[in-house]
Amino acid sequence: MRFNARHALVVAALVLLGGCAQHSMMQTGQQEPEPIPIKFVVVTMFEIGDDEGDQPGEFQLWKERQELDTRYPFPQGHHDIYVNEETGVLSIVTGIGTAYSSSAVMALGMDPRFDLSNAYWLIAGIAGIDPEDASLGSAAWAEYVVDGDLAHHIDAREIPDDWETGYFPRDAKKPYDPNKPDPSFEVQQLNPELTDWAYELTKDTELPNPEALEETRSLYTEHPNARKAPFVLKGDHLAAMTFWHGEIMNDWANRWVDYWTDGEGQFVTSAMEDSGSYLSLKLLDEAGLADSDRVMVLRTGSNYTMPPPGVGAAENLVAESEGYAGLDAALESAYRVGETVLDEITTNWDVYRERLPTPGDID
């Protein structure tokens, strides 16, 4: 990833702000409290109602099962922070969309109450999933996070006859221009060894497979992977603020990810936040406040990114908007798979505090 002068100014501002806060405490004679050492951060994006005891969103299972009982007010973010101070596990709810997620992660990274210098970060949420690759409830570990917003766009009714789409990269002259511009944050690669380790550790996890999923899966008569029971896979992530849907947009997503990753990435999941969250972590890394090599992205399929044969995109999107067919299964899958990684790291903290796990660590 290329860091330009603007990124350098952001990093300098982070360091300056931290120093100002410290200087202010010294002037007032306040005793600076010791920051709480955090081993593992779970980044979720939304909650549906209460944090406990009702229909869960992405946060609730983590709060209940990890006993995240200590609340820290977080007025600069979307939702208060919860911590298990005995295990060193912290979780946030960023809010939906790149603007919310990037600002929440940055605010957490700047928070002097927590020492995040050795923390592992798991971005764990639901997503649309490509029926060409996986089924509802499946869990995909991403190595690449590709942004789907930073681009030029011309309405398809006004594009040249030889263009397939009106969506094309900034500083390019046409869609999928072979003279590809240098990426700003259009594509970000996570630590591949950590991603491989997480996949190898969790690939045999038993995922929930309620009968209710079969009704939706069975409609995808031309997509063998969409008809499978939920499974764990490696697959890359497209983050875009627009909730898109349909076969044509799904084809675009596959080509967009392929284009920005030079053919190395495979589009599997779609959501809104992860390019912003990861960019904030990269900048926090530059400021010495986080380690971006310790970041993992796990997305689980709550709905398909395109309709089954014979169903229109608009019709299917409206139906999905009334309730994702795989929501509950996706939430449970995210917890089961993510918790396996969390438990392995925190249980073996004497090892993984200083060095990162690799696939060779798995028996």
UniProtKB/TrEMBL annotation:
Xref: PROSITE patterns: PROKAR_LIPOPROTEIN
Signal peptide as annotated in the record: 1-23
One BP term from GO: transmembrane transport
InterPro entries: Nucleoside_phosphorylase_sf, Pur_nuclsid_perm
One Pfam short name: NUP
GO terms assigned for molecular function: catalytic activity
Keywords of the record: Signal
Protein's recorded name: Purine nucleoside permease
